[in-house]
Amino acid sequence: STSLGTNGPLFGRTALVTAGPTHEPIDPVRYLANRSSGKQGFAIAEALAKLGAEVTMIAGPVALATPADVKRIDVQTALEMARAVDAALPADIAILSAAVADWRVDAADQKIKKNGGTAPGLKLVENPDILATLAKSDHRPTLLIGFAAETEKIIEHAQAKLARKGCDWIVANDVSGDVMGGDRNTIHLVTTQGVEAWPTATKAEVAARLANRIADALH
Ligand code: CTP
Ligand code: CA
Fold first, then answer.
1. Which sites bind CTP (predicted)?
2. Residues near ligand 1 (Cβ within 6 A)
């Protein structure tokens, strides 16, 4: 479908989207990562832009084309993503779909060498929670939406995250199948009002439905 531009229901609104994984360096040649493809987040950025929103997308390392009319900022690590989110504020709408690494590594300055059969220990440090920080900030977006990728007890975990992080909605994502990297998605929309089970659809269809829901909510 084409962009509605100035006629779109989100014209005049700003939106911030995070997407993809983060990479946390172990040493100059190695990193910790996760299986996030970024596809759902990129589709959401595209869908919001099509409804006329001014979209800034902060993307972790993924090989995906930038959607039309989306301003893209590339980052590698969770700390870089946190700083980029901060710098992109204020925004009316924020959708934090990125699979932010929960931990970074106290990285070595030089390539770690094998050492006679003794494996190195990695010292992990917890990353800041970008979503929870945004929920408490002076620039809290009017509509703040988080994601929850779960492999079990999806709704229970999503409701706990909604309360713990102080966001308005959680898009709960069942990642027990082949969702990571695939083109389809099964989600539940969890809000303080209740839980909606959405039918399995393409990531583009899920994104379009979510963008329309956002436009309705802001009206
Ligand atoms: N999130 C974030 N910053 C982090 C971790 C997560 O902003 N350091 C955001 C994600 O982008 C997502 C939401 O928080 O919108 C939930 O992420 P998730 O990994 O499901 O939650 P966690 O609190 O990290 O809990 P878990 O132990 O289940 O990973
Ligand atoms: Ca996590």
1. 102, 111, 128-131, 147, 161, 165
2. 18, 78, 96, 98, 100, 102, 127, 129-131, 146-149, 161
Reference 197, options 155, 163, 156; nearest CA is: 155
ipTM of the complex: 0.99
- 147 forms beta bridges with 171
Asked if the peptide bond before residue 67 counts as cis, ω within 30 degrees of 0, the response is no
Alpha-carbon distance of 92 to 111, in angstroms, equals 43
User: Cα–chain-centroid distance for residue 96?
Assistant: 4
Is 80 exceeded by the pLDDT of residue 179? no
Position 2 scores a pLDDT of: 75
Q: How many CA atoms lie within 13 A of 96 on its CB side?
A: 33
Substitution candidate for ligand 1 out of 104, 124, 161, 162 with most atoms within 8 A of CB: 161
Count Cβ atoms below 10 Å from residue 49 Cβ, excluding itself. Answer: 25
Condensed to tens digits (0 to 9), the pLDDT of residues 28-63 reads 999 999 999 999 999 999 999 999 999 999 999 999
Q: Give residue-wise pLDDT tens across range 8-18.
A: 999 999 999 99
Residue 119 CB contacts under 8 Å (≥ 6 apart), including other chains: none
Upper half-sphere CA count for residue 7 (Cβ side, 13 Å): 3
Q: Which atom of ligand 1 is nearest to the CA of 102?
A: 8
Return the sign of the alpha-carbon dihedral for residues 176, 171, 132, 61.
positive
